[in-house]
Specification:
Chain lengths: 112, 113
């Protein structure tokens, strides 16, 4: 079993819809990251969370440490949000701070 | 924040040859990470590049195939040696500062023919 599972793997939405992507993990973590990857391959960090909730523009990320679960929400989705969204975590403890373990990604397509 | 300049952005290489990928960070960082993303897959860690010591490789990756240099705290290279079509992937470098988000290079899209 993977240490991090994302759902759904593929998501299609109409412009304006509210979108939720889920991430569950099975180990103790130091922080959880939400990342966005565009078709060219470049990756941009959206959020880093260790507790609670963060908001940036139309994006909201939440994490429940006890349930080992995080969600990424996009309000009023737009075609430019089409990308692959990846959750990743850094392990609690250890010496390689910054080493990320990645989920398999969610391919989001938003149609006009 | 950090800005990472990664080159080349893409290359098409003949099998049996080697390609060196460079990452330059605009601030000092202790550890840099090299990842591979095979087509349709998520990212997998190749190795952790430490300044002043040998890189630490993950299971399934060896130094002879993926030699890494880390001459200072802002620069690292990854070489993909004796390439085969199975090495066709996106390669990315990354840094994470304590209590901050992760930063990535732009990625190198490698095609081996």
């Amino acid at each position: 079993k993977n240490e991090v599972e994302q759902s759904p793997q593929n998501l299609t939405a109409q412009e304006g819809e509210f979108i939720t992507i889920n991430c569950s993990y099975s180990v103790g973590i130091s922080a959880l990251h939400w990342l966005q990857q565009h078709p060219g391959g470049g990756i941009v960090s959206l959020f880093m969370l260790s507790s609670g909730k963060k908001k940036h523009g139309r994006l909201i990320a939440t994490i429940n440490i006890q349930e080992k679960h995080s969600s990424l929400h996009i309000t009023a989705s737009h075609p430019r949000d089409s990308a692959v969204y990846i959750c990743a975590f850094t392990n609690a403890g250890g010496t390689s701070y910054g080493k990320l373990t990645f989920g398999q990604g969610t391919i989001l397509t938003v149609h006009p | 924040s950090a800005v990472i300049s990664q080159k080349p952005s893409r290359d098409i290489c003949q099998r049996g040859t080697s390609l060196t990928i460079q990452c330059q960070v605009d601030s000092q960082v202790t550890m840099m990470f090299w990842y591979r993303q095979q087509p349709g897959q998520s990212l997998t860690l190749i190795a952790t590049a430490n300044q002043g010591s040998e890189a630490t490789y993950e299971s399934g990756f060896v130094i002879d195939k993926f030699p890494i240099s880390r001459p200072n705290l802002t620069f690292s290279t990854l070489t993909v040696s004796n390439m085969s079509p199975e090495d066709s992937s996106i390669y990315l470098c990354s840094v994470v500062y304590m209590n901050t988000e992760a930063f990535f290079g732009q990625g190198t899209r490698l095609t081996v023919v």
